């Protein structure tokens, strides 16, 4: 416990800077240290941390009431901590042993949700001590959080996925007779209370300048944790809205759409945002929409040319960052 106390004393100020009081900041830093185990009692503490890693009945049914209460406290502060840590967008790897029945769930095109906290490592190679396991996941992360700063093993470059993270299986490669590599992309389906679909052709690029606004809204804490559904084209956005997950968001006040106006990669780049909004209205979605663009006047010209006046309600066009931030935080 001394090591966890020492580590949390070194790192708790991160959470204070995010607006937490000292007591909660220390608790969040401590539980992250606990989760990653201990140098001195590595085996014992990593086994104990299974209480936190398995947020389901299978693990908690094996412990007594006191342990269950302890697990609840750990779960609370672990989720609270992750809600204040920036997203990791990029490749992460995870190695596990799966039986034949479990492997059968991972077919290209399938959606898979991991209900527990799930650890992974930055990059395409899993941790060396797990590399012999029979299944290697290569994941494009959207909401995984880098916790190496809080970890007792920073060299592991751990990326932690929150419970109920959902992934699309894109490809399966048989590495050898005993090992399979599964490629997945993390996706958001709008199943949380507040969600925003953001459409921009450069949204998955490391240098995309609007990521900071998205992260700020997505990591403001537990009271209003906005989830984002990133899409890189008009077509991919409409595919989502037409599917069952998109349909359930139709006209819901807790679902909004943000788009740029120009998308260089589309056939008609200059009015991509206006075309998207026209199609959104044609699909019967009357949700609030915002066009984030530097030229508001030209954007309105394009919108007016494609969308009749009767369907232009709940559309905002702005270059003002403050208006954008209020919009994606559901303040206005």
UniProtKB/TrEMBL annotation:
<comment type="similarity">
    <text>Belongs to the Arg-specific ADP-ribosyltransferase family.</text>
</comment>
<dbReference type="InterPro" id="IPR050999">
    <property type="entry name" value="ADP-ribosyltransferase_ARG"/>
</dbReference>
<dbReference type="GO" id="GO:0016779">
    <property type="term" value="F:nucleotidyltransferase activity"/>
</dbReference>
<dbReference type="GO" id="GO:0003950">
    <property type="term" value="F:NAD+ poly-ADP-ribosyltransferase activity"/>
</dbReference>
<dbReference type="GO" id="GO:0090729">
    <property type="term" value="F:toxin activity"/>
</dbReference>
<protein>
    <recommendedName>
        <fullName>NAD(P)(+)--arginine ADP-ribosyltransferase</fullName>
        <ecNumber>2.4.2.31</ecNumber>
    </recommendedName>
</protein>
<keyword id="KW-0548">Nucleotidyltransferase</keyword>
<keyword id="KW-0521">NADP</keyword>
<dbReference type="GO" id="GO:0106274">
    <property type="term" value="F:NAD+-protein-arginine ADP-ribosyltransferase activity"/>
</dbReference>
<keyword id="KW-0964">Secreted</keyword>
<keyword id="KW-0800">Toxin</keyword>
<keyword id="KW-0808">Transferase</keyword>
<dbReference type="InterPro" id="IPR000768">
    <property type="entry name" value="ART"/>
</dbReference>
<keyword id="KW-0328">Glycosyltransferase</keyword>
<dbReference type="GO" id="GO:0005576">
    <property type="term" value="C:extracellular region"/>
</dbReference>
<keyword id="KW-0520">NAD</keyword>
<keyword id="KW-0843">Virulence</keyword>
<dbReference type="Pfam" id="PF01129">
    <property type="entry name" value="ART"/>
</dbReference>
